[in-house]
Amino acid sequence: MNAPVRALAAAGLLFLASCAVTPISRLASPPDPDTVRSRLLQEEAATRTARGLARLEFEGAHGSGSASQVVVVALPDRARVEALTPLGTTALVATFRADELRVHSPLRHEYWTGRATRETLGRLLKVPVPPEALLRLLAGLPPLPLRAEDPRLTVVPDGAAVRVESVDGEYWQRLWTEADDLEVARGEVGRASEVLFTFGFADRRPTDGRSFPFEIRVEESATRSRLHVQYERVQLNLPADPDLFELPPPTDPQTRIIELGSGAPGRIAP
To answer: What residues contact residue 224 under an 8 Å CB cut-off, 6+ apart?
Structure first.
């Protein structure tokens, strides 16, 4: 082989080698922002209820725990969460209805009542998250609602991903897709200049016309307390009986009625 041919062959090998080691991320291109925006708004409008069986694990500065939970969410502001014992019996029931929180623990003969706030959720799940944001996360949606007519809703390329920003009341959120993906993978929610919590979606599966995240992770920024939700099964947009979200005080005379925020013990998870 003469010298020019050898030089050309060497150059070809170097070119092939450089292609082989080129990171995949360099080849990936961000999804179209307009397509991402349309997809998010479509899922927002199409999701009314979510019902499923999940494993909830929580960890905070004052304790940790886990339990199988039956979860029913009716957007925008109603939910019922029923914690199960290993035998499948009910250990605890919590209901949210607007800003009202009710918790009944048959095992401890306690009934808790109060406003649904970040603080009361912090006592229930060790992760202080605004209730409306938590319900939306359990329904597989971004923590804050997205409104097509809101000029503060922005969707722009961000490297190989797309970043979505929106505002709702006193809160703001930032969401990111992955490269070549239309779905939200992670995000953060804050107030003023403070990030309150971050979250991540994973294990997406086709569910009733949606790509639903069967794994949801939330981490509160100040205390690093964490919540991990792993769904076993989910159904969307089934009718939700309003009575599900009613939790009147039990008639059992042994049950203590406790007002949240009145100096009661810090842990109310089973």
So the answer is: none
Strands 210-220 and 194-207: antiparallel
44 vs 150: CA distance, rounded Å? 14
* Bridge partners for 57 per DSSP: 66, 228
Helix pair 131-138, 118-125: axis angle to 10 deg: 50
Mean pLDDT of 113-125: 87
Give the three-class secondary structure for 223.
Answer: coil
Q: How far is CA 185 from CA 32, 76, 147, in A?
A: 16, 22, 20
Question: Strand 110-115 vs strand 256-259: parallel, antiparallel, or unpaired?
Answer: parallel
With contact defined as beta carbons under 8 Å apart, do 79 and 73 qualify? yes
What are 28-59's pLDDT values in tens digits? 577 899 999 999 999 999 999 999 999 999 88
DSSP class of residue 61 equals T
Exposed, middle or buried by CB within 10 Å (0-12, 13-18, 19+), for 176? middle
Q: Please tell me the distance from the alpha carbon of residue 81 to that of residue 227, in angstroms, as a whole number.
A: 15
Bond before 31 cis per omega within 30 degrees = no
The pair of three-digit structure tokens given for residue 4, joined into one six-digit string = 């020019």
154-169 per-residue burial string, b: 16 or more CB within 10 A, e: under 16 = ebeeeebbbbbebebe
Cβ pair 136, 143 in contact under 8 A: yes
The tokens of 7 are what?
Answer: 């030089």
